[in-house]
Amino acid sequence: LKEENAILRSKINKLQILSETQADKMRKLEKKLEENKIKEEKEAQDLEAMVQHVEQNLQLMTKRAAKAENSAAKLRQENAQLQAELRNSRLENEALRAGQAGLAVAKQNAEVALQHLLQVTTSSRASIRQLLSGAESLQLVADLLKSIDRIAEV
């Protein structure tokens, strides 16, 4: 009986040690699980913050693109007006040549109109380039948002 008791006590001790070992493992796994949850929550918050930042940038770029489009439209309109003014100046110039009166004034007016036209044309080109740049930026942001969606799914 004593021998059997000793054997049983030995088994109980081994089982207690095994139980404590498993409890330690369980605590470690629970701790690791909690750490992983915290890490995932932080990553989700970081991702959400990044998405919000990208959305804000997209809104800013959209506003810039709209301003650039408006500016380009105004410059096109001004360009058309100046071209009409240039045509009128040329017609006036031709009429003055035919009459041989005020030729120098007409030439000067035509030259001034031409200079204005060239300035507006240069300005229009710059605005159109800016508009194209804004459109490319918007496309980049859209591609980035697609990538973010794919990352979120993964």
TrEMBL record:
InterPro entries: ENTR1 (IPR026757). Residues 12-99 form a coiled coil. The keyword Coiled coil applies. This is Endosome-associated-trafficking regulator 1. One of its GO terms (cellular component) is early endosome. PANTHER family: ENDOSOME-ASSOCIATED TRAFFICKING REGULATOR 1, ENDOSOME-ASSOCIATED-TRAFFICKING REGULATOR 1. Belongs to the ENTR1 family. The keyword Ribonucleoprotein does not apply. GO terms for biological process: positive regulation of cilium assembly; positive regulation of protein localization to cilium; regulation of cytokinesis. Keywords: Coiled coil. It comes from Tychaedon coryphoeus.
